[in-house]
Amino acid sequence: MIMGEIREETEKTAYDPKIAAFLCNWCSYAGADLAGVGRIQYPPTIRTIRVPCSGRINPLYILKAMANGADGVLVSGCHPGDCHYISGNYVARRKFALIKSLLTHVGLEEDRVSFSWVSAAEGGRFAEVVKGVTERVSALGPNKGIFKVDDGGAADE
Description:
Elements: H1 2-13, E1 19-24, H2 28-37, E2 46-51, H3 59-67, E3 72-77, H4 88-106, E4 113-117, H5 123-140
Parallel strand pairs: 1-2, 1-3, 3-4
């Protein structure tokens, strides 16, 4: 009986969330690369999606990631004022405020989506951001899947 209790406890603590990470090509992706080159440890919970600029992320990408099973989403770009495309991160900042209110409106927990600014020289900061996002999403548990994904009728075949 004790082994069964240990197994249950291990299963509870073994949950690793799946986090989709949209990273700006010029800063955040380079920061993630620096963390890897510098052998800075961070949780292997993120699935990296490289985008040209954080300002180009369509809010539907975030909703689609959540609908397709991501437990959380991280969007990371250049620091304000340091964007390769001049004002892309200012556009992103405005979108982030809108996305947060939209997610709350559709019933998702606000901590499932995180936004951060990480430069190419901040490998350590990138690792800390990923750790923080992983902790917050882990505390929320698995995504309940409030979205219905249209599989194009594949289930009927």
